[in-house]
């Protein structure tokens, strides 16, 4: 759904159109994306099946987007049972849930169906790269030309296309992400000299120079994220409140400023409740009250015990009175009562 008209955004326009999407945000299970279980655009069982089909028996993710991890182990050796690290997988799963199941992502939709484009904060992209930078992916130089042609001719590679460059077959090597084309400017040295190489080199030279984190964020997710240079005008996809604030404080305001005669209310859903259950909170409160009662009882006991001691002169180390700045204060009914009240002891 692309918000370009001046009426209202309905619930039916907030969700995607893939097989695991629901018609509108509604409660679902908690297997894959528990943070959206109270109002998700995804059927939990279906989206879990879709995401987990690229997982090994021990839970390693073998493929993400067009990139294949199955042919490389953690040390960069060519194997047949490789996979993504747990740190990188955690980010990938979180990003997948946000982009596909959040009822608020509709505001970032583009003309490409089911492909939002989110202005991500730089610190998020840096953390994302840090989590994945030491993972190895399959890289086949024989497919580099095809990949670069799509990247620089169409502005983006094609999701779902079986690129030779990313296959774990044939003449492939294991390439660390931080050293790969995902996070660095492409090295065109492997291409044969000719008009195509010259044209691609011109495009590379003319392209905006961006941090590796920005290149990684965009290329690894096929354009889902674009690193924003403005830390005050960006989204942290890990925090749903960051998304809703951006929509209401920027997207809605900007749209309505441009369309004053037909303002639009951009609906958002707050994050699902997390943390302690109501029962647990009640239990903690009761426990605190019991604790306070015990403390009060102990105070009363010791104050009352002091009242049973004999009156007279006291010295340090003897019981019966209170020592304040070395001055003996004889115990009286008033001081005992003050102790019982717990106001001034």
UniProtKB/TrEMBL annotation:
<keyword id="KW-0812">Transmembrane</keyword>
<dbReference type="GO" id="GO:0009897">
    <property type="term" value="C:external side of plasma membrane"/>
</dbReference>
<dbReference type="GO" id="GO:0038023">
    <property type="term" value="F:signaling receptor activity"/>
</dbReference>
<protein>
    <recommendedName>
        <fullName>Folate receptor-like domain-containing protein</fullName>
    </recommendedName>
</protein>
<keyword id="KW-1015">Disulfide bond</keyword>
<feature type="transmembrane region" description="Helical">
    <location>
        <begin position="280"/>
        <end position="303"/>
    </location>
</feature>
<dbReference type="Pfam" id="PF03024">
    <property type="entry name" value="Folate_rec"/>
</dbReference>
<keyword id="KW-0472">Membrane</keyword>
<keyword id="KW-1133">Transmembrane helix</keyword>
<dbReference type="InterPro" id="IPR004269">
    <property type="entry name" value="Folate_rcpt"/>
</dbReference>
<feature type="domain" description="Folate receptor-like">
    <location>
        <begin position="15"/>
        <end position="151"/>
    </location>
</feature>
<dbReference type="InterPro" id="IPR018143">
    <property type="entry name" value="Folate_rcpt-like"/>
</dbReference>
<keyword id="KW-0732">Signal</keyword>
<comment type="similarity">
    <text>Belongs to the folate receptor family.</text>
</comment>
